[in-house]
Amino acid sequence: MTTLTVKEAVYYSAQLQLPDSISIAEKKKRAEMVIKEMGLQDSVNTRIGGWAVKGLSGGQKRRVSICIEMLRRPKLLFLDEPTSGLDSAASYHVMSRILKLARNDGITVVASVHQPSSEVFQLFQNLCLLSSGRTIYSGHVSSTEQFFTSNGFPSNSKKSF
């Protein structure tokens, strides 16, 4: 996959994943649509790249992977560490695109994220916080600060919630 361009990777995936009842033209249209939705239209002719071949940035590669998953418009999308290894700006960009698509298409997104920035954290609607495999908090993001302060944790003036 490292030698394919963004357009080729997403288009070939559309050909392989989508049912035969969908025309080739419609598959191509859907591939172009997800590329645009994930903000990769300026990179369509860029090779994905890898350790030996220069190509896309880490954030762009993640967005290509998400494009491929979004082709079928799943009702439920699981993302394991979609922001791992990205800087805070790239993390925010990736997550805001994913959540915009989710809201527009009625997709439920379940994402595991370690140490999100406060900006990324505010994008989420619900939170399930685990510690050593146990649920510490489960509920709406807007209620987290109240929950923790009412349970004896000091409020952080830097707004980590």
From TrEMBL:
<protein>
    <submittedName>
        <fullName>Uncharacterized protein</fullName>
    </submittedName>
</protein>
<feature type="domain" description="ABC transporter">
    <location>
        <begin position="5"/>
        <end position="84"/>
    </location>
</feature>
<dbReference type="Pfam" id="PF19055">
    <property type="entry name" value="ABC2_membrane_7"/>
</dbReference>
<dbReference type="Pfam" id="PF00005">
    <property type="entry name" value="ABC_tran"/>
</dbReference>
<keyword id="KW-1133">Transmembrane helix</keyword>
<comment type="similarity">
    <text>Belongs to the ABC transporter superfamily. ABCG family. Eye pigment precursor importer (TC 3.A.1.204) subfamily.</text>
</comment>
<dbReference type="GO" id="GO:0016020">
    <property type="term" value="C:membrane"/>
</dbReference>
<dbReference type="GO" id="GO:0005524">
    <property type="term" value="F:ATP binding"/>
</dbReference>
<feature type="domain" description="ABC transporter family G">
    <location>
        <begin position="114"/>
        <end position="152"/>
    </location>
</feature>
<keyword id="KW-0813">Transport</keyword>
<dbReference type="InterPro" id="IPR027417">
    <property type="entry name" value="P-loop_NTPase"/>
</dbReference>
<dbReference type="GO" id="GO:0140359">
    <property type="term" value="F:ABC-type transporter activity"/>
</dbReference>
<keyword id="KW-0812">Transmembrane</keyword>
<dbReference type="GO" id="GO:0016887">
    <property type="term" value="F:ATP hydrolysis activity"/>
</dbReference>
<dbReference type="InterPro" id="IPR003439">
    <property type="entry name" value="ABC_transporter-like_ATP-bd"/>
</dbReference>
<dbReference type="InterPro" id="IPR043926">
    <property type="entry name" value="ABCG_dom"/>
</dbReference>
<dbReference type="InterPro" id="IPR052215">
    <property type="entry name" value="Plant_ABCG"/>
</dbReference>
<keyword id="KW-0472">Membrane</keyword>
